[in-house]
Design brief:
Layout (H helix, E strand, L loop, with lengths): L1 H10 E3 L4 E9 L6 E8 L2 E8 L2 H17 L1
Antiparallel strand pairs: 1-2, 2-3, 3-4
């Protein structure tokens, strides 16, 4: 159970602004993974992104959110 909670904590990182990044999926072999992440604020999904690293996927999700908010 504590292992599951640790995974949830790792998969969902919260900033001081109430923004959370949640891992939606992790696909592919260990040497060639693709991560899908969504960014949320106050429970509202603002954007999604994919990338070869979690950081890249988070950056794409943030970019998607900013583009949607700018409309």
């Amino acid at each position: 159970n504590s292992r599951r909670q640790e995974q949830v904590n790792n998969d969902q990182a919260e900033s001081r602004f109430g923004v959370t990044y949640t891992l939606l999926s992790e696909e592919g072999p260990p040497h060639n993974k693709t991560f899908s992440i969504c960014v949320n604020h106050d429970g509202l999904r603002l954007g999604e992104g994919t990338g070869k690293t979690k950081k890249e996927a988070e950056q794409q999700a943030a970019k998607d959110a900013l583009e949607k908010l700018a409309r």
